[in-house]
Amino acid sequence: MPGPGRGRPGRGRVRRMAQAGVPLDRAAVALLRQIDESEPMRPGEPASRPTVEASHVTRQVQQLRKTGHVTRVPDPEDRRAQRIRLTPSGREAIDRVREASRRAMERALEGWSPQGLQQLATLFHRMVDDFLAYAADEEDAGDRTSGGQ
């Protein structure tokens, strides 16, 4: 249930997409972000990542191609396969989404004191460091149980 003074979950995201002028749903934007971070990629690659639901990938790639946000390019390692990459329109859309998100974060934190912001930054960095250490430990444990393969 939303906290006091909050609307339904996801409403802010819809508002940010409207402010950014990007008529895409959450799953399509998540896919655009992934392509932007590691493009070009094979169309099935996002399905193996936790931020994109596998059942949505094919439909989302088709939607993004129809709207001109991504295009297919030959895979340099396997000419029979194709990869997807952002088009200039896709790059512009993801930049607008990031800018709208940045402005929303600034508005959300504008009432925070400098000390509160410093404490948030300190704790956030600690959380990221702890998470990365945990992930590395999990990976090492997996390597040991699988014989290092």
Architecture overview:
It contains five helices and two strands, in the order αααββαα. With 149 residues, it is mainly α. A two-stranded antiparallel ribbon has the order 1-2. Helix 1 (11-20) crosses helix 4 (88-109) and helix 2 (26-38) packs across helix 3 (54-66). It is flat and about 55 Å long.
Number of helices: 5
Question: Mean pLDDT, nearest integer?
Answer: 81
Sum up the overall morphology in one term. flat
Percent of sequence in beta strands: 5-15%
What portion of residues is helical? 55-70%
> Which structural class do the helices and strands define?
mainly alpha
Tally of DSSP β-strands? 2
Largest sheet: 2 strands, antiparallel
Secondary-structure blueprint:
Elements: H1 11-20, H2 26-38, H3 54-66, E1 70-75, E2 78-86, H4 88-109, H5 114-145
Helix pairs in contact: 1-4, 2-3, 2-4
Question: What's this entry about, in short?
Answer:
This protein is 60% helix and 10% strand. The protein has 149 residues and is mainly alpha-helical. The radius of gyration is 19 Å and the shape is flat.
How would you describe this structure in keywords?
mainly alpha, 149 residues, 5 helices
